[in-house]
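Dear Dr. L.,

I hope this message finds you well. Following up on our conversation about the binding site, I have prepared a predicted three-dimensional model of the protein together with adenosine-5'-triphosphate. For your records, I am including the exact sequence and ligand specification that went into the calculation, followed by the structure tokens. Please feel free to forward this to your student if that is useful.
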Amino acid sequence: MGDTVTVREAELALERERVAVRYARLDALRAEKQEQLAGVRRSGLQGSVQNHSERDAFAALYEDRLAQLEAVEDRLVFGRLDLDAEHEADTPGPRYIGRIGLTDEEHERLLLDWRAQEAGAFYQATPLQRQGVRRRRHLMLRGRTVRDIEDEVLDPELASAGTNEIAVGGQGALLAAVTARRTGRMHDIVATIQSEQDELIRRPLPGAVVVQGGPGTGKTAVALHRAAYLLYTHRERLAKAGVLLVGPSVGFLRYIERVLPSLGETGVVMASLGTLYPGVAAVPETDPRVAVLKGRIEAAEMVQAAVARRQRLIPARRTVAVDGTALTLSPGMVRRACERARATRKPHNEARETFVKILVRELADQLREKLEHSAGATVNRDYLLEDVRTSRDVRIALNLCWMPMTPQRLLAEVFSTPETLRACAPWLGDDEARLLLRAPDAPWTEADVPLLDEAAELLGAMPSGAPAEDGEAQHRRNVENAKATLENVHQTLADLGVDGVVDAETLARANERGTVRRTTAEQARHDRTWTYGHVVVDEAQELSPMQWRLLARRCPMKSFTIVGDIAQASAPGAPRTWRQALGDSFDERLVVEELSVNYRTPSRIVRWAAGVARAAGVKVTAPEAVREGDHEPTLTVVPAGELQQAVLARLAELRDLVPEGLSALVVPEELVAPLSAAMQQQGLTVDRVPAPGVDVVVATARETKGLEFDVVVLASPERLVADAHGVVGDLYVAMTRCTQALAVVTDAPEADLPGGLVR
Ligand SMILES: Nc1ncnc2c1ncn2[C@@H]1O[C@H](COP(=O)(O)OP(=O)(O)OP(=O)(O)O)[C@@H](O)[C@H]1O
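The resulting structure of the complex is given below.
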């Protein structure tokens, strides 16, 4: 025994020393960058404009590097590989793997970035395919101290030699990670990436890959680590073009926002579906039927038709007065100008210039003829052109035929005028058309975003010098949007680099003004026509064909990582396969890969949830779970009127079973407020979204998509299915959010419960 302790202790002491050396190097690099930054700042305000911008560029570079060095503090080093001599190449000795690459002052390697090709063996090597690895060691740190080590010995010679008595296997680090209490923020998995995940993370950049996986299989984790991997491997290209990461809501983006910085990457543009159209902060679409209608591919035709209606012929001759001279605009003149403008194939607002130029010229010719006829002398044509162009009558007449338009104005008109809507979307039934009608200044919703984008594409830029015709209306709407959703405020604050409280008015103004932007990411976020080098889409099963169309435009190279679970889709009539879901946006080269292990939810809970989904006819791939779990999930049926009490009682029990955990009450909307108040009275910190310091999240099932908690109490499962028009996706998602324990509570009769719930 004494010997055993000695070997382990000796190894621990050795690793502590080596890890300390690496942290010391990190400290030295931080100090160096601080010094450089201070130096640049000291250089003061003197100098030319060029000097200023050079100085700003250097300062930005040092700040970014410093931010990166600060962000990798936690578990800087987590792995070690001992290799066969021939694999050691020019750096003999063990290879340490960490969050970033480090070299010492002599440029000798101290730490290998986990994304480097040589680090791949840390995740991929198996006893059958050793890739030169003799031993893989997991270093488990608390703060800067190595707390434990765990070895996987792959070389049989080393194993039989029994060189040490350190815990063997490699599952310890993984189990410790998956059973740890949740903090309300997602953490990276860099120390324990599993080989099936690693394969997806390291796939080449070109092409679109779909990562299909049941709940908790690490899809979000894979998506984020892949973004970090691609940025590292294709730094030059992607740093310029940028990477876009799309998540379902700003709440979700907040949940994952620390992961990429902790992997040393700060340049990814994160956007929710509501923020993909710059300048518009859209609110969620609350009516799933409206979301489905606006998401149909036919909606693109609706926008096309709306634009076409803005290019009108005239039924009869019309007289326009220029400086007191009556000129004639004939249907034939307008038709020919229209045809020639359309033939330019430019967007509406840009083609309008051709339309206007032709007619102004023809009217000026008429004017000249008339003037020359009456004056009997030649007249300067240039002056006449100007007279015609600036004539109020002509402007009105030409605008009636070909009105310059903003996307906002175009769509506001479509959705607030029944005749226009019916004319543009003849495929809508009467009830459907009624669903889409709304006030002209109603806030934009997430479902409008792809339509605005489509319209912007077809309309093109407004003519320069055109009056900001609906600037005030747009501003009012922005204020409404900013008020309506705190989520967007958060995002915009982040953009502005503002801390603290800002009112909706200031926010809307700042958005409209635009801000001083530095990085590629920030520029890209504000430019609708930006094309990214790669796009990552999470919870991708929720996207409509119109949303895919928008995203395909953001990356014409179609380099995509698409992660989701087709069985979790909540939209009525949602497609059952990825190829159907992605429609025409991607070609047949689309690759679909599957993840098979659930790292979040214990087996006993996964089986129950999968049973419920299957009873509803959904084909679920129930992945095997890494652990069975300690707590059997429960169903409690109480008499009507006792639901809230029962929910609170179950939560109290589960919180006793799993102390210090993050809990969630997943409830129908109308119970959010009363249950939150009840929990607050008990002295608990309650919020609608998870965050550090929050004890209980009280939210609807939709809001908990992509999130996770230690314990979950789910109220009224039958309501979840009914509210989703019979689709079981939301219930399935809600049942798989917990890492430890689940209780389902209802006051509905057993007969009304979704199939598979009663076991
Ligand atoms: N290799 C791993 N090592 C440690 N933890 C992991 C690993 N893979 C996944 N996890 C953890 O499992 C949990 C689920 O991961 P993630 O949220 O990425 O899954 P998901 O497939 O996106 O889930 P869902 O679709 O249900 O929202 C997270 O806490 C994540 O950190």
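In brief: The pocket of adenosine-5'-triphosphate is lined by residues 174, 177-178, 189, 192-194, 197, 213, 215-221, 565, 599-600, 706, 708, 736 (CB under 6 Å).

With kind regards,
A. P.
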